[in-house]
Amino acid sequence: MSTTNLRGQITEYSNFINRTLRPQLQKAVDEREETEAEISEFLQLQTKLKLLVERDTRMKIESKNNNNTLFPIDTIVDICHGAVYCNATIPNPRTIYIDVGLGFHVEMTLHEAIIYINKRVDHIEKNVLKHRVKVATTVAKDVENAIKLMEELGVELADME
């Protein structure tokens, strides 16, 4: 094989890595990070819901009231992605709406929402995240193999010259 052919192959592999594999790897890593962020958001919501359940229980005990009296919550709500907030009162803190996908929101009790979040996080970890990690690992190995091949071609080129 001539040095011109080897240089051409090295250039071709370099272009393949930079134009194809690296963007694929970046996309795979970004998707994995999005999935991890989604899991984190669900776990934060679950923690807040558990605090609401504890608050409701504590309020019932303190008021010696075991019936279904509601204890509204005064809070601040983000209405513009962290730019604008407003005061709000949640009149019935025992039910919430959960985004279940495809633009659908389902009304659930706090306990139902906690159970749903457990199942959703379990599904995401076992299926979605597992697949995205596998894809990212495969593409990373492809990049490593292409770089090794370029190094071998570089050594072969150096031996020829």
Short description:
With 161 residues, the protein is of the alpha+beta class.
Describe the structure.
With 161 residues, the protein is an alpha+beta fold. The protein has one domain. The strands form two sheets. Strands 1-2 form a two-stranded antiparallel sheet. A two-stranded antiparallel sheet has the order 3-4. Strand 1 and strand 2 form a beta hairpin. The longest helix is centred in the N-terminal third of the chain and has 60 residues. The protein is rod-shaped, with a radius of gyration of 27 Å. The mean pLDDT is 87.
Strand order of the largest sheet: 1-2
- Structural classification: alpha+beta
Gyration radius (Cα, Å) is: 27 Å
Q: Roughly what fraction of the amino acids lie in strands?
A: 15-25%
Comma- or semicolon-separated keywords:
161 residues; alpha+beta; two-stranded antiparallel ribbon; two-stranded antiparallel sheet; 4 strands; 69% helix; 16% strand
Please outline the helices and strands:
Layout: H1 3-62, E1 73-78, E2 85-90, E3 95-101, E4 104-109, H2 110-160
Helix pairs in contact: 1-2
